[in-house]
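Entry for the shared binder. Reason: the reviewer on the internal report wants the predicted structure included alongside the sequence.
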Amino acid sequence: MSPDALMWLRATAYTTVALLACLLLRRPLRIWLGATAAYAIWASVPLALLAAVLPGPPVGAVVVQVPALTAIPLAPGTGNGAAGVQQWLIAVWLAGAVLSAGMVWRGQRRFLRSLGPLHALDNTLWLATHDVGLPASLGVMRPRIVLPTDFTTRYSADERALILAHERLHLRRGDLQANLLATVLLCIGWFNPLVRLAWRAFRLDQELACDAAVLARHPGKRRSYAGAMLKCQLGSRWSPLACHWAATHPLTQRISALRAPAREMRRAQWNLRMVMAVAGVASLAGWVIQPGRLGATPTPGNAVDFSTMQPPRYPAEALTAHLAGFVELQIDVSPGGTPDRVVIVHSQPAGVFDQAVLDAARHWRFKPATADGRPVASQISVPVRFELDPPEQAGASTDAGGSQRLASQSRRIDDCVASAGCAKQGALP
């Protein structure tokens, strides 16, 4: 399996574990530590994804230079089927992510159009022409609070103050930016059923945390707060990027949560920091157990023996144009013998043979270097030459010449692979 596929699987596994932990812990945390702590546990999801995609901690490496590997044109049908399957899977995932992002963008545009022209009351307060899922906070780059036209008549003075305190708290805490990040994770994780379930739970916990914070500052306004929720006109249009006052969340659960005893602000902040610290430590542990990136050379000179190293396929375009070339690779080999990172150091002609070499190198397997009897990471520089058969071989007859050409290719591959200290994965037809 290629390093890219391994990283994708690792990211999926890390985020799935983080999502399961959040779904299982959110209610106990809300009971024991408060709604703010339950909302904070969701920070572990992007932290887990970050831990999965970042290179691991630096480890020592043995740097090995190997002889050049020669790639020559092979007979048709010798391609790697696994690479094709991986490319199709990547294409399907990318298509689903783009489609999900397009649906979010379309929903956002429809919601904004449904509000009609907006009239500014001050820098952050705006009045909409139509009441659709309002009051709400929206806008990532320019956060603002959008109010319905009958805001002053529908709600009492206490209710208006509580609603504005709620929405302004969303703006101060960066909840709109958090919604954008959650929506991005929803789009790239569209294939994972846990992602959508967790996204809904995250949005509810966001509102419950905001409710708890407002009531902690106004402990005697619970009845007015519940009344303001019940007066909200539920609309069919909403935005996944906005923070709606009460249009998209279970009102019964939010109202029942108002009966929970208010926690002191200082205690709530301490609980928040504690949960964030636990999430950070868990993500750090996930990052530490990753395959390390290569650093200084602890014990030079340990040779790395290859177990499989099939030469790359000759690109059809280069073969048609009768192009030869050279590519120099730098491969970071993990202690397990798999390539962690493959980098093109130099290629000539530039860009012609790069993809063919990368596709082949991701499937190479190596016998790792050792230091003090233990496998260690290594860094290998592999030159690859792309050469065409001599003209006299190309002009041979179709039958006899073709057989001789394949036999010549087989011998040349055996020679070049043996010189690089590796073995072919399969035999030529």
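Summary line for the report: The longest strand covers residues 374-386.
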